[in-house]
Amino acid sequence: MSQSDNSFEPNVIDDEMLQKAVEEQWPEDIRKLAKAEGINFKDVMELQLSFRNILQIDNLWQFENLTKLQLDNNIIEKIEALESLVHLVWLDLSFNNIEVIEGLDTLVKLQDLSLYNNRISKIEHMDTLQELQIFSIGKNNLTTLENVVYLRKFKNLHTLNLTGNPFCNEEQYMLFVVAHLPGLVYLDFKLVSDTTREVAISNYHYLTDLLEHEEAQALAQLEEKQAQQKELEYHKTAFVEYLNGSFLFDSLYAEDTEAAKLAYLPGVDDLLQAYRKDFVSVCENLFNYCLKEHEKREAEVSDFYEGLREVLTANQEEGRRIILDFENQNRTRLDEIHHASSHDTAESMRAEYNEDILQLSETLMTLEMQMVDQLEELIKEFERNIAVITSTFIENVKGMMTQCRDLENRHHEKLLEISISALEKSLKNELDEELPDDVREFLVDKNTIVNMVNKSHNIHLLKISMRECDILLNMYHWEASVKEKALQNEIDRNRNRIKEIFQYIDDLQEQLDNTQIPDPTE
Amino acid sequence: MEVLEEKEEEEQKEEELKALEISSELHDTKTKLSVEQICFSSDVPDFDWNSIDTSQLPDSYKMNSPREKKLLRIADHYHQQYTHLCPERKPLFLHPVNECGVEKFVSTTVRPTLLPYTELYHWDGCASFVSDYLTMEPLKCPLTPPSSLYSPTTILKYQRGNCFDFSVLLCSMLIGAGYDAYCVNGYATHNICSLDESLEECPLLRKPQEVPKEDVKKSNKYRVKSLPDMHSKFELQQEAKKKAETEATEKKERGERDMEAEEPTCDHLCGLRVHAWVLVLSGKREVPETFFIDPFTGNSYSTMDEQFLGIESVWNHKNYWVNMQDCRNGCKDLVFDLSDAVHWEIMLSETDKPLQLLLGAEKKNELFDRNVDDMEEEEEEEEEEISFAMPPSWVAPIQISPKEFETRCSQGRKVILYKKAKLEKWAPYFNGNGLVKRLTIYADSNWTEAVEVKEWFKNREDMLDMREVNKQTQLTTEYFSPGHLFGLKVHAYKSMNPQTERVMEFYTETRVDGLQKLAENASEMKEYFMGRDDFKYFQHTEFRTKRKKVTLAGVGTDVNSRPIVQIKECFHRNLQKPADEDIAERVFLIEEEMIQLTYHLKDKYITASKKDFFKPTESYRKQSEIMTPEMCITYQAGSSEQHTKLVHLYKLLQKLTEEEKQLKQQVWRSQAEMNAKKDEFPGQNEQDLDYLAPFLIQMGSPEKMTRRQALRLRDNCLSDFKNRLVSKANIIQARFEKEVEELQKKNQLFQENQNQLSEKEEADLLADYSETMFRIHILALRLDREKQTAPQKYLALEEKLRKDPRLAEHLGHA
């Protein structure tokens, strides 16, 4: 089947075509070699599928590492099936029949995109292509000049081709584009001159200024949000999210309907204010303490890893030295064995070398065993320190939480007092203030009111305990994970090293075994 | 009064007696002294000051003005009182005679002058200029001040003088530059007085004090315990002991030897040798501390320096002070507050006090004080002094022409002997090869066995800055300033021949290839790089030395290209690549047709990945298989997947082969560059072209010439030169005529078409016309000059020929 026969019949990309295309782009000698070995599409970095009458893109998912894809001069109508080519840097879809820009969202590394000579009428759906530098969308069906403003998103865009679109005939086309895309160096194959830029800016600054202002505002908002998010994240790692301020206090009362009713009693308001103030200040203390502790923990961990790194580097150098020494000593040994005067000497030399290899293996293993011992100690020390940090932290947090509880208890007692006195007054009809009906309802007997106050108190205590529990759990969790990580790292390291040593020794022995020695007859 | 005077007379007699005694003592030492004098004055031909021409000097040199006469009277009076008060002290140095035989007061000899050279605005510039410019003469008698003191202008004119002349000149320049400077008459050690620096370390050899680097290292609490040390500590101790002992004995021996060699000779005239130097007080020109300048060397000394043994008196252009302090401990304990009447006896009390006290608020007080002083002094009936201010200097303005300033040393050369070292200085441009300084270091104290020669250059095209030649190893090291054609910084070599041992360092920033250092010898070349994009930092090329192969003559290869045995390259880690794809070391074993690749270590790994390629042999290539697994031995650290695909290996091999080719070429290129360098190295091109060579060749380059040949040679040479001059003149003449002709043509054209010309054309024509006129004028000038200078040039050549060593014996007396 030759290409010319194909030209009238629409095609779909299939395995056969791909195989052929991949093969074609190599020179003769490599092609032979590759064929013998079998081609893995994963290894292909570039692929050219031009002039093949392709109607539909398909079957490209295997080319995971593709960076350059040429699909120009086909009859493609829809951009599709490119989602998995996330490493793509260059994509050429020129001279096709595409009508809508779509399906490019995952190609975040894309720098060079050509959609020249298609039927596109709107620039859209390209928000994620932040790396875009060169964009060609000439000879399309773009009619509204304002659509170009969309390209302001791409901060790296320096080359743009828009020729042959309907809006190019508009009088202000050039100036409009230049004014709205200040980073542009080349437009429609030509260098944007400084004079053009000046004129464009002076003509359109009323529009662009507005745009810039809006963009700046959006950016500022985004940044602010990010900063907030970041701070919250930081607080979370210190286990104190929302602990500064009155968030916890407010949460005590959030689900407490009884307290809301009780608040109407005379004197409760003042009490609440005072309580709130004390409580918040304790919370602040706790918050600051936790942050400080967090810093301390981080410092401890980084100290540990710093120390670990030093030890490991020293160990690596030592191991490296041993191996280099060995290699330098035995550089010519295989040759010597190969060229030995007789079979017997060769045999003995081989045995000797084998012995040396085993010796090396022994040395490396000993080094590794020492290392394991040393690191075990190191990790134990680290664990001890972490345990100390954890226990002091927990103690202190518990202490502060107890302060909270004390505050709550005191508040509870006072509230009880007020409530009872209010009840008594109410019973004697001495209450001067007008109270809402539902409040009046439980000012009937002592049990009701005490129950109510107790209920509110219990809710509060529960909340406080929950928060405490939260912090403590987090802390335990942290301790466990840090220890676990240190241990796991060490185990992995040890395994890898042992594996490496075995592999290296095997390799040496294999080389030795492969060395030909003179025949015994000689 | 009379009694007093009698007493004075007696004292004078006594003093005379004492002086006699001293002089008798002197006689013994004089013989020795004269020997010493010969020592340092041997290369300075004796100069007779009596022969100088004083007739041209202005009148102020030859007579005293009334004020000066009065001053002298005051000085005499002062001196009388002084001798009366301090009978045991030596007479003061107040009014020696000048070059015209007229007595002049020393303060009036100081002529403050600011010279128009930026270098001379600072004290160190002035001091080094004075020390370089003047040639030192010893005092006639080393124990008394000289009887005469010449004007600085005369000193400058003849470029020689004693320590007093030096001091007065330097002091004049310093005061002119705004320093609070004074001439000092005092006593110093023999070395200072006789400008004998032969016991001193050369200042150029003094090593800068090393600042110990502080190791700021935070100790981490996480440390592993070191493994138990299995070595015997006792043995180590014993060894250390032994070493210490041997070292100690060696040191002792060496020390003894040194002692023998360098025992300083004791000077029994210590403390009596008269010297003059300059004192600079703190205060003016942001001088933080009072210090001395020795005018002979131009070096500054602390006032505590032990080489200055005492001060008699100091003076500047305004006043004269006598030191009343005890100088038994040298100048260490002296107080330099000249306004302090207890320590310093002032001569003219009316003149300004030294600036130190003249600051701000004290002025009023001072005025008051002065009035009080005046009152007291009036009582003592010394009105004369009160109203008297120092008369202006009688010396004509000091002038130094730019040429003199540039030439510096007298005859453009100055030699200083230091301890085991000799320093020679030349003025810039004095030597054709730009040599300005040469320091020779000797192994012995007699300056015979040179060990090392250092030469400094200036204003050279190849930016050569310093050359160091080690006479023992024959190693030459040249240092270049930035700007050399190849970015050369340091070049160390033993001989200029190609492929011998040499080390070159470069200014890396200026080189495209980032070459930093290149070390070469007969069999290898090491190159060190910095800041390259491909992360290469080292390249080692081994060559086959030619001795092994008896090469057939004319085998086509370049003579300089040696066969390469192997090239090894080392690379830094490129963090953008994974470690086991980033090559750390690449070895091309060219003779063995092998390429070895070693990759960087992966994190925490101790074995590096490796690939060894065996290049396919010719027979192999013809087979259908272009790449087989046997051609590459791979070791991939930490991955069990043994085989990468052959396609990749093949591609890699292709790439490597290509790079090997390029590398070879690059090595040859850099060899060529080295050879090019050799050609333009300074050592060779110091000789001029021989102007006689063409004529000598015509005569068959005879070893020795007969008189007839010499004459013929001379005639040939002269006639050739004459022809050249004539033809040059003819060329100029021809051009001149051509221009004139053209001008006439233009003129004609202009005349004819004057009416039809537009305004612009007319302007063009006129501009053209004036330009032609200008050219004609220049040509005429040249022609004229040529005619004038030609005979002179001819005569100069004739003279040169006569003095040419090859022809001298025949032509010298012709």
TrEMBL record, chain A:
User: Its domain of life?
Assistant: Eukaryota
Tell me the compartments it is located in: Cytoplasm, Cytoskeleton, Flagellum axoneme
Q: Which PROSITE patterns match?
A: LRR
Under the heading SMART domains, the entry gives: LRR_SD22
- Swiss-Prot/TrEMBL keywords: Cell projection, Cilium, Coiled coil, Cytoplasm, Cytoskeleton, Flagellum, Leucine-rich repeat, Repeat
**Segments forming a coiled coil:** none
Cited Pfam families: LRR_9 (PF14580)
Coarse class of the primary localization is: cytoplasm
The question of whether Repeat is a record keyword is answered with yes
**What GO cellular component term, any one, is given?**
cilium
Which PANTHER family does the protein's record reference? DYNEIN REGULATORY COMPLEX SUBUNIT 3, PROTEIN PHOSPHATASE 1 REGULATORY SUBUNIT SDS22-RELATED
State the similarity comment: Belongs to the DRC3 family.
Q: What is this protein called?
A: Dynein regulatory complex subunit 3
The organism of origin for this protein: Gallus gallus
Automatic annotation (TrEMBL), chain B:
Query: Which Pfam family name is an example for this entry?
Result: DRC7_C
SUPFAM superfamilies per UniProt: Cysteine proteinases
Return the InterPro entries for the record: CEPT76/DRC7_peptidase-like_dom, DRC7/lobo, DRC7_C, MORN_DRC7, Papain-like_cys_pep_sf
Per the record, the GO terms for biological process are:
cell differentiation; spermatogenesis
Note the superkingdom of the native organism.
Answer: Eukaryota
The protein's predominant localisation is cytoplasm
The answer on whether this UniProt entry bears the keyword Coiled coil reads yes
Keywords in UniProt for this one?
Cell projection, Cilium, Coiled coil, Cytoplasm, Cytoskeleton, Differentiation, Flagellum, Spermatogenesis
Q: Which residues form the Dynein regulatory complex subunit 7 MORN domain?
A: 411-675
Specify residue ranges for compositional bias: Basic and acidic residues. 236-258
Coiled-coil features, chain-numbered ranges = 358-385, 646-673, 726-763
Residue ranges of every copy of the Dynein regulatory complex subunit 7 C-terminal domain listed in the record: 703-811
Localization: Cytoplasm, Cytoskeleton, Flagellum axoneme
Q: Region labeled Disordered — which residues?
A: 236-260
Q: Which residues form the CEP76/DRC7 peptidase-like domain?
A: 274-347
Q: Which family does it belong to?
A: Belongs to the DRC7 family.
- What name goes with this protein? Dynein regulatory complex subunit 7
Q: Which organism is it from?
A: Gallus gallus
